Amino acid sequence: MQKIKLTAESFGTIQKNLLKRTTDSYPDQEAAVNEILANVKENGDKAVFSYEEKFDKCVLTEETIKVSEEEIKEAYDAVDPALVETIRHSEARIRAFHEHERQESWFMTEQSGMVLGQRVTPLFRAGVYVPGGKAAYPSTVLMNVVPAHVAGVPHIVMCTPPGRDGKVTPTTLVAAHIAGVTEIYKIGGAQAIAAMAYGTESVPKVDKITGPGNIFVAIAKRKVYGHVSIDSVAGPSEVTVLADESANAHYVAADLLSQAEHDQLASPILVTTSEKLADDVNAEIDEYLKKLSRRDIIEKSIENFGRILLTDSLDEAIEAVNEIAPEHLEIETVDAFLTMTKVKNAGAIFIGPYSSEPLGDYFAGPNHILPTNGTAKFFSALSVDDFVKKSSIIYSSREALAPLHEDIIRFAKAESLTAHANAIAVRFDEEI
Length: 432
What we know:
Elements: E1 2-5, H1 8-18, H2 27-43, H3 45-55, H4 69-78, H5 81-99, E2 106-109, E3 115-122, E4 125-129, H6 138-151, E5 155-159, H7 170-179, E6 183-185, H8 189-198, E7 208-210, H9 215-224, E8 229-230, E9 238-243, H10 249-260, E10 267-272, H11 275-289, H12 295-305, E11 307-310, H13 314-324, E12 328-332, H14 336-340, E13 348-351, H15 357-362, E14 388-395, H16 398-414, H17 418-425
Parallel strand pairs: 1-11, 4-5, 4-7, 5-6, 7-8, 9-10, 9-12, 10-11, 12-13
Antiparallel strand pairs: 2-3, 3-14
Helix pairs in contact: 2-3, 2-8, 2-9, 3-8, 4-7, 5-6, 5-7, 6-7, 8-9, 10-11, 16-17
């Protein structure tokens, strides 16, 4: 990977390059998505069936668009029982972590008798998008569905693209069943997002859509936001490793490549105070590339968005990390926990040489659906919070309102809202 001495100028160039991966940079795809959204909104199932035949080469009908119980049974028969148990084990760990995120409604009573509080209720229907095509992502199913299930969402709708034979990847179906999906539809791409956002004759409209996808899915999610809620507009994957001279170059190189293999737009970055580590990591990468199966993708990722940033001090390295705000951050320094306390912006933080990023992808428990492309400065990992809403509760008697009513009237008049002031005044025979 290219080594760069970190300066204000070099860092600005790197940030500008990383931002090229945003969904705002694809006008041709955006035009195509606009057409798909409008068509599905207007024509429902008919449009969905047409796009599935065009893009996924699959002929669907009202009878076959929804995955049947028989298809789920067939999926269990097709998946290695050992893998089924692995999926169950992973689901249990993810569920256990997200149980800690539960929030309860609360109420407080003031001395005056006024009751205030917050009522926490789950969304009624959540929509989950799971990529398909050449690869299966049962881990993505678990990460989307489990927090919704823990939140108490009664209806969890999943869309995923089918193969040419009209079947969904068996591991995807098994994971969905284990996690608690209510219904599954064989739809991919922007048409799936449109179907869940607007509803069709077969697919119910949802309240929120979560889950990653290709550029068409990402743009579609951004476009339907406001009509429904979304988790975020996910960009290509990224990992930043923050390391000093104590880090193991063999491990660091392996972890950088584990993200680079996702996509040609993935971004592996090493930020280090050690030039020796930088050179050793590059040498390790060369050796790994001789044997990794996705070499072509990895090389493109490294060439386009992979960098090694050399800094004079650990504080300077941490400052750079906070500006990058990476999706995944690995810390391999002498005192990694102390370093972690200085990190302000990261989707997920992996501490120490044995906390490799794939641990978070599959088995640790915290969610692997994370903010990308610098959005960790203001977004968080997908969680139970994404599947609940909060209503403020207010109760007041006349006696509790009395000592406040003059202040409310004064405040309302200051904003020239006399009807507001009057609504309080009439309760004390003081019409405005």
